Amino acid sequence: MSVTQLNPKEDKTPALSAQVVAFARPRPQKPLARQFARRGRQMLAAILPPLVTLALMLALWEILCSGPTSSLPSPSRVVSESWELIVHPFHVGQGVDQGMVWHVLASLQRVAIGYAFAVVAGVALGVLVGQSQWAMRGLDPIFQVLRTVPPLAWLPLSLAAFRDGNPSAIFVIFITAIWPIIINTAVGIRNIPQDYQNVAKVLRLNGFEYFGKIMLPAAAPYIFTGLRIGIGLSWLAIVAAEMLIGGVGIGFFIWDAWNSSLISDIIVALIYVGVVGFLLDRLIAFVGRLVTRGTANA
Amino acid sequence: MAQSYLSLEFIDKTFERNGTKSDVLKQISLGVDKGEFISIIGHSGCGKSTVLNIIAGLIEATSGAVFLDGKHVDAPGPERAVVFQNHSLLPWLTVYENVDLAVSKVFRGKRSKAERHDWVMHNLDLVQMAHARDKRPAEISGGMKQRVGIARALSMEPKVLLLDEPFGALDALTRAHLQDAVMEIHARLGNTMIMITHDVDEAVLLSDRIVMMTNGPAAKIGEVLEVPIARPRNRIELASDRTYLRCREAVLKFLYERHRFVEAAE
Ligand SMILES: Nc1ncnc2c1ncn2[C@@H]1O[C@H](COP(=O)(O)OP(=O)(O)O)[C@@H](O)[C@H]1O
Ligand SMILES: [Mg+2]
Q: Are B11 and B30 in contact (CB under 8 A)?
């Protein structure tokens, strides 16, 4: 009896699900194909113009610098002169004789350390300045003056203080990146809507809860603006910071190449610096989008 | 003097801005019984929000005092939950998380995690928003946001629910839906509620008493009107109800004859 009861059920279920599949399938297919086509067109529209511009610029550069008296190498000469450097990015040698990847990684490590310190100290100081009227009055004018000091100007001072190249370079990164982080965090904190503060008051959130649940998320879009400017500035500063301290790093590599009159190598290094800087900026922007999802549009 | 459940006693409020003082409230005294629904009505800028914020403890009165259930009110707290005019949901939290923020804070250590979860869902059900629990405020309509704001306030189990023009920014149809929802919640839970409004029909439909404020500066309570209409109330039946029409007329007369809004006073 149980068998006879089970059988018709089993018969029915696949028939039903088969029907569902049959209905469901053709529906998304057309839009999906169209979606792919649209995506493809969008990608093309995004990639094609810069590629064309790049080709034109390279052609112009080639024409301008191909003369025998030209002081700068043309693209084709860069490729032929620095061929070893270009095709062996992971080369390991003595001293400054390393593949480009190792130089970039050494620089990135310094930036990571200096920037991490700048993020922690910058957000903390920004919160202080944004929260307290007196801290703002006392500190803001000083920040406004200090932030205009060019990164390289800090280097002799930090060399004198640390008596060592590596911490000096890291300090220069730190001091360059921290100002936009402080200022943007403070603005973000000061712009927390009164409504959110009232919600916190009615709930009697304590200081820690307010900080974690209201302050940081509410100020996050501003903080990430500061973080993004900060990462850009610290990458700008790394070349300056490393030029004078020696060892492995993209900054010293450029300085060394200049001293050895390897102009082609400098150009290769510049391309690395540009691409890495671009990627860093995109990385922070991406993290910011992830973290502030929903916050920007209240 | 026998004190009411909630009592405002001789509240004065003077704001000081750049050295110039402005008297906003003068000698506001009011007693509210437990379970009562009070509307405060008055022209814009007369000081309604200031009264509500003083009850909430978000603003300090210059002189006078507020007592709730025999205790002096001197700071904000969840027993006086506020529904703000612009919902003020936290945009980075989902609907569920917004209510849960309040529930976790108020009932931490008093209820288990499972109980707190059930309580969040219960309050979302109460305002018919359980279906949108995982949406963020930006993804739901203005009326829905206000519903979630009400759920968040109710979830604190407040002694008094304070509503500052809760439906002011909504279209007439959505507003009517929410008024019905609030009436139903009031009937079910018997909360004490104080609502600010500038809508005469809303005031008469919802309230047990309507507090009418005079124009500022130094606004006073001009008149308190009883609304002796039995509950549950039905907006369609009331449209031709004699008592309803009489109350409506009384409020209109107060607002537009005796205390006409003078634009120049702003
Ligand atoms: N923080 C403040 N400082 C100075 N004046 C204020 C402040 N808050 C409100 N006021 C003034 O108090 C008066 C009453 O405001 P409010 O209570 O918001 O009015 P309503 O809610 O009735 O429209 C207004 O004239 C307003 O300008
Ligand atoms: Mg108001």
A: no
